[in-house]
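Technical appendix A lists one of the benchmark inputs used to test multi-chain prediction within the project. The record comprises two sequence entries:
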Amino acid sequence: MTDSLLSVRDLSVTFRLPEGEVTAVDRLGFDVAPGEVLGIVGESGSGKSQILFSLMGLLAPNGRASGQALFAGQDLLAMTDTELDRVRGVSMAMIFQDPMTSLNPYKRVGDQLAEGLVVHKGLSWRAARAEAVRMLDRVRIPDAASRARRYPHEFSGGMRQRVMIAMALLVNPRLLLADEPTTALDVTIQSQIIDILAELARDMGTSIVFVTHDLGVVARLCDRVIVLYGGRIMEEAPADILFNAPRHPYAKGLLDTTPRIAAPLTRRLDIIPGTPRSGGAMLPGCPFAPRCASRIAACEAVQPPLIGIGPAHRTACHLIGEAP
Amino acid sequence: MTALLQLHDLTAGYPVPAGLLSRDRLVPVVHDVSFTLEAGRTLGIVGESGCGKSTLGRAILQLIPTISGKVLWQGQDLAELAPEALRRRRSEFQIIFQDALAALDPRMTIGRIVGQPLATFEPHLSRADRHDRAVEALRQVGLSADFAARYPHEMSGGQAQRVGLARAIIGRPKLIVCDEPVSALDVSIQAQVVNLLMDLQEELGLALIFISHNLSVVRHISHEVMVMCLGRIVEHGPRDDFYAGPLHPYSRALMDAVPEPDPRRERGRIGLSLPGELPSSLDPLPGCVFASRCPQVEARCRADRPDLRDITPTRRAACHFVEPLR
């Protein structure tokens, strides 16, 4: 893909722990086109959040990222902190599951928003505050002008997440990295936040990488989906294909095990046996092999390569052959 | 026959300090809750944060004070039991929590944790008997005997929930209140625990009160469903009727908001979210609990709180616009 906004190649993230080095993300590659919403789905320990942290230069001190992540042609992983600061909060922004950890409890919300514009764009405080109110209004915070003068604790969880989105959008980024931003919210509020993000991608052409464990949220918001397990891509496909004709046993299993609100009831839910991989050394074979019902001898010995099996459709499974 | 559990207009809440010289004041969190639960059945209770669903679960188990109304356990008013009698009676109704690991003492082995309730419920048992019963309970939740010698920190989220469940069933209860038991689990583990609860129910004839914000999980496990909003029941009825066509506008809003893993269905729903947020439950308004967000709201909804009425012989709803069928 030549028109990618973000092009990740061979991305690995490792952590130094007392018991040795642990690989969270293993030689991952993917692209994000301008205006595209890419969903990255995985369970705990899949490495999904670490991908975003590595792109933002926010890995824990014992973490290390290698490989390449070209954002608008520049390699994010090769940048110094100063260089990264010119990208972060200017053309790339991130929102988190818990907005309170990113808001300063002692500062009025409007001022926290305005600060970024004063620092990054050189606006006057007066102009920056006006812009902050405009953005709070855009994420549908009622009575934005008076809310801007309040403190974070006076906002509900949903309102705080809107503030985070407003803060991320103020600088009009080209790429928004979203780490489970709706997971802690009630379902009707989650729905409102998804609406705002979808509108953003559509009207402002912002690309979004949306990390979540919730397949339903992905189905509503994302154009394309990557299913991650044990730090590796199991399957990657346009949303319609992934949800209607998944090929990888893990992707299928994940869909089958998710209870639905509008599908015929079965007596028992389908299950994936075992527990998600947590830490430890990389296995020589497929990370999902220990839990896979269809595994063959090769699965535990050799890592299956990620191969193309259709237009924009890739999977890594020994049982699935390459498209002719 | 007497029902297993009956609530009559139960209002319950938490004590808040009222000052140095005065008694603590009880602030109601759930209001006027009435329902009947028969043995072997599952009641799903759904609602958003702050709706009082967990408080209701605790009030039923007498873990927080009743302000008015009654909890009848097999016809017996639990509030009338002396503390010691209530303590022994607790073998019959147990609870499991969302954060299962936090409910396990980190310094005790899994075997001791699981066997501990028997010290109260069956004090005559020898240590060896207690251990055997613990191993048996672990086996019932799908954990092998060697788990008895392990410690809580060695458990994964799903295993910790199984341990909590083993401890809950060791006294041979008739009811388990499950307070968001699968909300913190990965989806592949969530299905394992839901299936386990359904298997145990069949095997042991358990009644379950399954409290959750997840309408899809509740649909799977429940025989009947109750929706709560700001401390009140707004709808209650059989599972299939409820999911085929919820009566209350709040139930409908909740159901419409659930994202389903189906892109074709979901894309059409972008931009249709119900606006607004629920008001605080601390300063309740006079009318319907959902009035501030309801798309159908009229003046009387803000003035008069609609009663929870029988709409059909098996369904109840609290909405001025849902008329009883004749």
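Chain B is about 30% helix and 20% strand. The CA atoms of residues 244 and 322 of chain B lie 16 Å apart. Comparable benchmark entries are summarised in Table A2.
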